[in-house]
């Protein structure tokens, strides 16, 4: 059996829409009886029963042991199975690559990063992840590549990637060979990481969240009620090139005065006078360790934190987020950067009536974007656009 995309028309379209609703409910609630699923989705219990039977036949769900149900009658909870349908999330960044295999239940099957921001390094990592963690009975239903770039709303076209030098056509072709029959989608890395934080990490449960990633580049993802806010062309969140900070600092985009030139990984290292290591995470961990005993390093991080706070204050005034998550190297530095950022944010918001967003470090590490890419790849399944029972 191979899952199929189908147009939503008539009774068939309604069936797949309802199937998506049941799958989303199981993702949100965990193991649930048919009565509970009917109550949560608003579907008739008989309809839920038919859908569950189809999903059982497709090996997408399985019954667990019985437990007391409605009015004391035994109900058999249904749970998503993780051994049949999986997705592959990838990230290509300036100095590292990541791969995450995620199963239908939302469990991370594998999560790996390696130094080296090249197409060859990514291809090798993706091939290894598939060979070692996707069994012969499993089906890869989607693959998404996260990149630090402007990606158009078609989820395929890289419009601008100032920090990467990659032949995108060749990369798409070579990665496509790994999963025949699937077209690899492409997404902005900050958007993917924001999506991961909303569904698996520090922004889970937040109605409105802003994620800011800290690597060589700086980007943001905006999440409203669990869904990404993409903007008119799909470019929302390109905050790294806001004109703020040192007006003389040269940015990787070729202009001067960008926020990225003040708080990006290279700017942070210049502020503390330390070298870059293999990945942003290792680099930040080394800086944090030095900061324990070196006052000049702490002072440099204080200045970076103030510049972070200035930027998120501007974004907070525009977006009014409930939660701000700082990812990438920011998370490893923790309060060394977050405390001056919080303080500056509080000082710069114009009115006391403006709600101060909760500024939190990422909980997902350097693989956040790859995890979000894998989670996004399940989108067509959870909406019913991709039919697992076909």
Q: What is the fold named in CATH at topology level of the largest domain?
A: Nucleotidyltransferase, domain 5
Report the sheet with the most strands, covering strand number, pairing sense and barrel closure. Answer: 5 strands, mixed
Structural class: alpha/beta
Number of domains: 3
First-residue to last-residue Cα separation:
7 Å
Individual helix count: 14
Name the poorly predicted regions.
Answer: none
How many strands appear in the DSSP assignment?
18
Shape: globular
Rg, nearest Å = 22 Å
CATH architecture label name of the largest domain: 2-Layer Sandwich
Strand content: 15-25%
What's the CATH H-level homologous superfamily of the largest domain?
A: ATPase, nucleotide binding domain
Strand order of the largest sheet: 8-7-6-9-12
Protein described:
The chain folds into three domains: 4-81, Arc Repressor Mutant, subunit A (Orthogonal Bundle), CATH 1.10.10; 85-192 and 369-378, Nucleotidyltransferase, domain 5 (2-Layer Sandwich); 202-363, ATPase, nucleotide binding domain (Nucleotidyltransferase, domain 5). The protein is built from 14 helices and 18 strands. It has helices at residues 10-29, 34-41, 45-57, 119-133, 168-176, 189-200, 260-263, 265-272, 280-291, 295-319, 329-333, 335-348, 368-377, 379-383; strands at 4-5, 61-63, 67-68, 74-75, 78-80, 85-92, 96-103, 108-115, 139-147, 150-151, 158-160, 185-188, 208-214, 218-224, 227-228, 323-326, 358-361, 386-387. A five-stranded mixed sheet has the order 8-7-6-9-12. The protein has a five-stranded mixed sheet with strand order 15-14-13-16-17. The protein has a two-stranded antiparallel ribbon with strand order 1-18. It is globular and about 65 Å long. The N and C termini lie close together (7 Å). The model has no long low-confidence stretch (mean pLDDT 91).
